Amino acid sequence: MIINMNCTFVDNKEITIGNYVLIASNVQIYTSSHPVLPQERLIFENTTGPECFFKTFARPVEIQDNVWIGGGCIILPGVTIGKNSVIGAGSVVTRFIPENSVAVGNPCRVIRQFD
User: Fold this and answer.
1) What CATH superfamily is the domain 2-33+59-113?
2) Which is catalytic among the residues 1, 6, 11, 34?
3) Is residue 28 flagged as an active site residue?
4) Which of 21, 25, 56, 85 could staple 101 via S-S, CB 3.0–4.6 A?
């Protein structure tokens, strides 16, 4: 496994990285997020003051064997990247990427599959 410089891993849940994985510079992997709806996201402890807290949840991230993640990618909570896949530089991975795929973009989408 090679992890280049300036990578950020937020690991409130497991981040599993397989064998022979290449992670380029400035890749960000997040396991934590917040609910979208404000009534689910905000917790007001004191109804007389402005104090509030934010609900957080976490989902694991799995990067399987022989994956190459290009520079500046962002991998969001709950994502699995299948073995042998390539994620193009600058992609935002929001969902499962099947094995033997080339995926790029924001949001990241499979543009090619190989044997």
Assistant:
1) Hexapeptide repeat proteins (2.160.10.10)
2) 34
3) no
4) 85
